[in-house]
Every structure is written in C-alpha cells, then in structure tokens.
C-alpha cells in the first residue's frame, strides 16, 4: 500500500482511499470486481488470513462462495485495489501497469 500511495503522489494522480478492512465493503462492489477480474485475482492465498481458514473454507466452489468469504474476511482481498478513471481494475501494485493504465486513461498526459 505504501508503495502505491507513494507512486500515486509522485505522479500527481488524485485518488480517494477507502479502507475496506475497516470501513467495510458491499457485496455488489465485490461481485463487480469478480466479474471484471475473477475471484482468483482478488483472493490473497499467501496471507495469514488465508492460512487461518479451514480447508473447507479454502475450497471455494463458486464466485458466490468467494464473495461471501471476502465479505466475511476483507483482509483476504489483495491490496491495493485501484479503479482507474477508465474503469480498469488494478489489483496489487505493479508500477508498470499503473503507468500504462493511468497514462492511457489521461489521454497520454501526466
């Protein structure tokens, strides 16, 4: 998160931060994210929260199962989740993707 915030600040990209772990998240938002990138891109299977889940919980059988699990355990969602002005969803911090997506969304202008 710190790297993403720094990158956005250094590149003059205005943004609004929503801490879904503290402030919550609604099912429609998560459902939309899953429709756009798939739940496998969103669920962090390397984190502590994932490792603490039972094998039954980890056996995600459908999008709805994944959505329910992410709503119950928001810390399962990979961070950051960035919605660009063009409507593209960027999961995790990759400077090259940020540069390409945000530069494209601004018409090639920084």
Automatic annotation (TrEMBL):
Entries under PROSITE patterns matching the protein: ARSC
The keyword Oxidoreductase belongs to this UniProt entry's keyword annotation: yes
Keyword Oxidoreductase: yes
UniProt EC number: 1.20.4.1
GO molecular function: arsenate reductase (glutaredoxin) activity
Top-level EC class as recorded in UniProt: oxidoreductase
Keywords: Oxidoreductase
Domain of life according to the entry: Bacteria
Family: Belongs to the ArsC family.
PANTHER family on file: ARSENATE REDUCTASE, PROTEIN YFFB
Name of this chain's protein: Arsenate reductase protein
Naturally occurring in which organism (per UniProt): Azoarcus sp. (strain BH72)
